[in-house]
Design goal:
By secondary structure, the chain is α+β, with helices and mostly antiparallel strands. The chain has 15 helices and 16 strands. The protein has helices at about 5-20, 50, 65, 70-75, 110-130, 160-165, 175, 185-195, 235-240, 245-250, 255-270, 300-305, 315-325, 360-370, 375-380; strands at about 55, 60, 80, 95-100, 105-110, 135-140, 145-150, 205-210, 210-215, 220, 230-235, 335-340, 345, 385-400, 405-420, 425-430. The strands form 6 sheets. A 5-stranded antiparallel β-sheet has the order 7-6-16-15-14, with helices on both faces. Strands 5-12-13 form a 3-stranded antiparallel β-sheet, with no helix packed on it. The protein has a two-stranded antiparallel ribbon with strand order 1-2. A hairpin with a 4-residue loop joins strand 14 (about 385-400) and strand 15 (about 405-420). The protein is elongated, with a radius of gyration of 27 Å. The two termini are about 45 Å apart.
Length: about 425
């Protein structure tokens, strides 16, 4: 008749029922999951997107709760017995068919203090930039352990029913379940392809013309400011995020357009784009990466891909891909479970995907980005720490109008922070939508 009564209410009813002598009313206790730690924003619980919640029927939904439902919930006992004329079980005839299993306890990789701090930073960025949403993830680039993962708007997992009735889309975790065009953070993958093929070095000089005509003049790309910076080294061109230079690097990866397209696409796949990372939370998506072997790329397709347009990824994929660039070329397995019932869980990496010798160059390049451009340097460097990364500003396609949205962008930053020069300790990926 009524559920979710707090003890004071149920006790008041119990007393009134007893006083009135009303038969046939009984009370049953129900187990519910409580999320006691407040999140970094108003009316949120800590790590709501990553954890998910348990519904009133005991089913885990979203996040860790859904992914590990069987382990957390256990299995019920199955008992067989005869019944009397009123349908009630006869205790004397009962025997157990299956004793069931108790639910397990999970210990997660999440650092609660860092998680709260990240949630506070995310909501501050959401307010400051008047954003639709902001997401971020902090990961150990060597083990794949997720230390913090946050998005805003978020929700209070203790009040999931109200959210389900008014705005169920808030349950979806943008870090693993939403894709977007990442923009210039993808220039780092173009650099990887160029270094692997030997077609460029960090000192290679390339003319930034501000605009580049492609496909016999039928298509064109521009630098963000539509201005030419002239001949510059690749290292400086990446720091200043020149689209034209990235496109020229991609177009020269091989003697033919098909060969260059295949080379860049193969780097994307190797670094985990276009497939799920396998993280142990529910709802992960693979992203969208077009294969030039299936649909031949034009020059404009290759050029756009060189600076992160025409491909759709998740923030977690970016964190994993950048981790491989800085950790010696290993593609790690991102995960949030550290132990079950106190027993540590071994999580193997997914293997080498880059030559280890590339990492020092890529680490230095990312540091060059944030230390060379004054706008980045003032906002990124942290006294006493070693920092590097790459920015991204991507246009957003409006499928309703068939054109790019005006003055609306996806902003990304993927980078690292470390306590020693040349040694990243954390990889952080941020998306401001």
């Amino acid at each position: 008749v009524a559920r979710d009564l707090v003890p004071a209410v149920s006790e008041a009813i119990r007393l009134r029922v007893a006083a009135a002598g009303i038969p046939g009313i009984s009370f049953e206790s129900e187990s519910v999951r409580i999320y006691p730690q407040s999140g970094g924003g108003p009316e949120t619980s800590l790590a709501a997107h990553m954890l998910g919640f348990v519904n009133r029927d005991g089913g885990g939904q979203y996040g860790v709760e859904q992914y590990y439902q069987e382990l957390l919930a256990g299995t019920p006992a199955i008992v067989e017995s005869d019944r009397d004329a009123n349908g009630r079980a006869i205790v004397e005839t009962q025997h157990t068919i299956d004793g069931g299993t108790a639910g397990g306890d999970l210990s997660l990789t999440i650092d609660a203090g860092l998680q709260l701090a990240l949630e506070q930073e995310v909501i501050q960025a959401w307010v400051a930039d008047r954003a639709k949403s902001v997401s971020a993830v902090v990961m150990d680039p060597y083990t794949g352990e997720i230390y913090a993962e946050a998005s805003f708007p978020s929700y209070d997992a203790n009040d999931y029913a109200q959210i389900a009735a008014t705005d169920p889309g808030r349950f979806v975790d943008p870090v693993v379940s939403e894709v977007y065009e990442p923009g210039s953070v993808f220039k780092m993958l173009t650099v990887v392809a160029g270094l692997e093929t030997g077609t460029v070095t960090m000192d290679t000089e390339i003319d930034d013309t501000g605009t580049l005509r492609l496909d016999n003049g039928r298509a064109r790309i521009n630098d963000a400011d539509r201005k030419a910076m002239g001949v510059m080294t690749l290292e400086d061109a990446i720091a200043w995020s020149r689209n034209v230079v990235a496109a020229k690097v991609a177009l020269n990866l091989a003697p033919t357009l098909q060969g260059a397209s295949t080379t860049l696409h193969e780097v994307w796949l190797r670094l985990g784009f276009g497939s799920k990372t396998g993280i142990d939370v529910a709802g992960e998506v693979a992203g969208l990466v077009r294969d030039p072997a299936t649909t031949t790329w034009r020059e404009i397709d290759l050029a756009n891909g060189a600076f992160g347009q025409g491909v759709a990824v998740t923030p977690l994929q970016l964190a994993v891909g950048f981790a491989a660039m800085v950790n010696g070329g290993m593609l790690v397995q991102p995960h949030v479970m550290r132990a079950t019932d106190g027993t540590p869980v071994e999580v193997a990496g997914r293997g080498p995907v880059l030559d280890a010798s590339l990492s020092p160059t890529l680490i230095d390049l990312m540091h060059h980005v944030v230390s060379t451009v004054p706008f980045y340097r003032d906002r990124t460097l942290i006294p006493g720490y070693f920092v590097g990364g790459k920015t991204g500003t991507a246009q957003i396609w409006d499928s309703a109008t068939g054109a790019w949205k005006s003055s609306v962008f996806n902003f990304s930053f993927v980078g690292y922070v470390g306590r020693q020069t040349g040694h990243p300790d954390l990889v952080i990926a941020v998306r401001i939508n």
